[in-house]
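>> received
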Amino acid sequence: MDGLEAIALQDKVIEVLRSCYDPEIPVNIYELGLVYETKVETTGEVNIKMTLTAPNCPAAGSLPAEIQEKVKAVPGVASVKVDVVWDPPWDPSKMTDAARLQLGMF
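>> returned
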């Protein structure tokens, strides 16, 4: 896979991330700002750095596994690593304008 194919694959990965939702908030994790970094290597390896809304989030056990499963199903993805990080901590300022609008936070 060349660099352009890796970029196209990254777009597909982000599209899949937009299909994953925090179970307590009706906005996808990408728009919520929970995904800090998505790297796609030319080998098809995908590394995702993300956080959760709080360390005691009920989705802490299930959401990373759901993300890994959905991203792994994207054609061209060879492997997926999801790292949950707590620094920097998530706060509502990380949400996109679309997410804020959807949640009535304007």
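>> The CA atoms of residues 29 and 89 lie 15 Å apart.
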